[in-house]
Amino acid sequence: MVTKKPSIVIIGAGMAGLTAANKLYTATGFKDSFELCVVEGGTRIGGRINTSEFGGDRIEMGATWIHGIGGSPVHKIAQEIHALESDQPWECMDGVSEEPSQPTTIAEGGFQLNPSVVAPVTTLFKKLMAYAQGKLVGDSAAGCEEIDYYTKLPAKALKVSSTSNGGQEKLSVGSFLRQGLDAYWVSKKDQEELKGYGNWSRKSLQDGIFAMHENTQRTYTSAGDLLTLDYSAESEYRMFPGDEITIAKGYLSIIESLASVLPPGLVQLGRKVTRIEWQPEGDEVSGMENGSATATRPVKVHFCDGSNMLADHVIVTVSLGVLKAGIREDSGMFNPPLPSFKSEAISRLGYGVVNKLFLQVEGNDCNNFPYLQMVFHRPDSEFRHKKIPWWMRRTASLCPIYSNSSVLLSWFAGKEALELESLRDEEIINGVSTTISSFLPQLHKLVNSNSHELCNGTANKVGNSHGSEVKVTKILKSKWATDPLFLGSYSYVAVGSSGDDLDKMAEPLPKLSNCKSAGSPPLQILFAGEATHRTHYSTTHGAYFSGLREAIRLLQHYQCIGV
């Protein structure tokens, strides 16, 4: 009798899935001893990595940054394949992940802010975040006059109104930040009022500058509201040391490198999974619905075209958003449903949406657009510009993707990012044009003109007194929330969850330790992806590490039993 080779199916051809496939396929003796297949629901590989082109520049619709080059596996691969240099311009090729040292910060109404007004609030915000992340302690905190009033905050009132299990109140990053700002105002209550900023007071400007930084933080974390971002878990998140850079030849070059070792046909595109049937601990395989598996193939994967595939092991690398949708009662993605420890972790963790908006501009001075930081009035302020749309008011910046580029970029998070997906190009250009007319009344302005003819055949020009103007000729936006293969962007630890939930996300089913006594085949469903890594969640390198982890788990399992 010929013994069947163990069959491994990987669901998803993104960073986690292809890293796992690469590790398995290149392992010594693997090709002769196992069957391997990667199934991808979309028409391309890469997942939330999607390199594209816009205005002649290479841009990223999804993952953008190598978050620290010291020790990053992504940076190592990029070096090995010579992906860090390119003749074609690329997004953020200047190599700065945050604003330059002297951005142009303008308050609504066209008031350019003196750096002496912006710098204290910016410093405060950065130190508060550094403290929340566990970076500003001990010697590094010594000598900082601000430390006295905000290092005591975690022990005081960093509480959101909701409570977690057992009635214990949880702390949020958002409440911590605002408590810090309140304490700052108390310590500076005798400051003299500012002059020359119209209807802006010193306090309202400081509040607006602080909110600008909060909105940038929302795009970093994907938490639409920082009041939902858990404070305790923030210090567990880890960054690699060194510069944050983008990849000259595009993030997709990393994906293509990982996939290059796999033979043609191993990755199957257009194979969207609808249901995964498996054998929980204590169940007999023969008792599964409709004879769905055999003793050697305990998992059955169903696809949207009605076909199916049997496997011994399935590595699930879909996004947390897809898993959240999959555990709903009306979904039936897993049959039987996932055990409560797994489904509850999926429910508790946060998963948000972040979108990018690119604008192509033309005109005699289009290459001199500033790195614009925008300070907005509060949405309920009587001084706000009534025609600036609500979805623009939590956008922190609008800037060229590199120095002198004619492509501008803005980031959106939360409900504003979701709204962006539903808007027509004309509506977006109108909203951006109105916003910039308020912020840059003395500079060159955008013209409401799209790459296709507007419905009324005219362009709403917002020019300056010298007749110089910059035209938006087309836009490009990401739409991660409404894409059924992702349903959002990346994960965060929400208030009510913890790093323990990320560890639970990584646990395989059934657990290896329980299988001998229960008689259930081990490691039927394994989980990988950025939302399964406790310290590097939300990143491509976190996804990489998770794919490596699950591949090694399977290799070690079979090595132990002599295969």
From TrEMBL:
<keyword id="KW-0285">Flavoprotein</keyword>
<dbReference type="InterPro" id="IPR050281">
    <property type="entry name" value="Flavin_monoamine_oxidase"/>
</dbReference>
<dbReference type="GO" id="GO:0046592">
    <property type="term" value="F:polyamine oxidase activity"/>
</dbReference>
<dbReference type="InterPro" id="IPR036188">
    <property type="entry name" value="FAD/NAD-bd_sf"/>
</dbReference>
<dbReference type="GO" id="GO:0005737">
    <property type="term" value="C:cytoplasm"/>
</dbReference>
<feature type="domain" description="Amine oxidase">
    <location>
        <begin position="15"/>
        <end position="554"/>
    </location>
</feature>
<keyword id="KW-0963">Cytoplasm</keyword>
<dbReference type="Pfam" id="PF01593">
    <property type="entry name" value="Amino_oxidase"/>
</dbReference>
<comment type="similarity">
    <text>Belongs to the flavin monoamine oxidase family.</text>
</comment>
<protein>
    <submittedName>
        <fullName>Polyamine oxidase 5</fullName>
    </submittedName>
</protein>
<dbReference type="InterPro" id="IPR002937">
    <property type="entry name" value="Amino_oxidase"/>
</dbReference>
<keyword id="KW-0274">FAD</keyword>
<keyword id="KW-0560">Oxidoreductase</keyword>
